[in-house]
Write a structure and sequence with these properties.
Elements: H1 3-17, H2 21-40, H3 44-47, H4 52-61, H5 66-105, H6 111-153, H7 165-182
Helix pairs in contact: 2-4, 5-6, 5-7
């Protein structure tokens, strides 16, 4: 590809972003510098998983603000999902509470039978709640995979679909960096 073609492509990209080449360079330098500072504040086990190249690539991916928008939307979806799952859990617990109240008011059983039935009901409720919580965790895990897939498809460095807890922790740190950067103003 000729240098004229590359320069033309760069000019098109700059027009889309709305920044001059100098402003883009300044923004890239600022983002990269901030990412380096943030990475140095992490525990060593995470710093080692954030090479300079990854942070530079992340800074480049943040230039046009698209990734900031994607992360913001994913956060909104996450909050809605968490609220829905919390409401489902409250309804589930309420159902159990009502069952215990009905047992307490049942006049057909004597106290010994109620105590025995209450013990069985509590054990059943514990098992049901454990299964229900596992279902909720699985739903959250699916949401994490969806988010990883979206960020990977958007070309955000450091993101891939994984169940590896260390990689997920690194991705959480990268998301934190992105959120913190989205709140900063690039100095003129």
């Amino acid at each position: 590809m000729s240098s004229d073609n590359i320069a033309g492509m760069e000019n098109e990209e700059n027009c889309e972003i709305g920044l001059s080449p100098e402003d883009l360079q300044r923004k890239l330098y600022f983002l990269n510098e901030q990412l380096q500072v943030m990475a140095k504040d992490l525990p060593l086990k995470y710093q080692q998983r954030l090479p300079h190249e990854l942070l530079c690539g992340l800074a480049e991916s943040l230039l046009d603000n698209t990734v900031f928008g994607i992360v913001d939307n994913l956060m909104d979806i996450q909050h809605v999902t968490e609220k829905q799952l919390f409401q489902q859990r409250l309804q589930f617990l309420n159902k159990h509470t009502l069952a215990m109240q009905e047992l307490a008011m049942d006049t057909r059983m004597d106290d010994v039978a109620k105590t025995k039935h209450r013990t069985l009901l509590q054990a059943t409720h514990r098992k049901e709640l454990q299964l229900f919580d596992m279902k909720l965790v699985n739903e959250l895990d699916k949401k994490v995979c969806d988010q990883q897939r979206i960020l990977e498809m958007a070309g955000v460095p450091g993101f891939e679909v994984t169940n590896d807890p260390i990689k997920i922790q690194v991705q959480i740190r990268l998301l934190d960096f992105i959120l913190r950067l989205s709140q900063m103003q690039v100095p003129p």
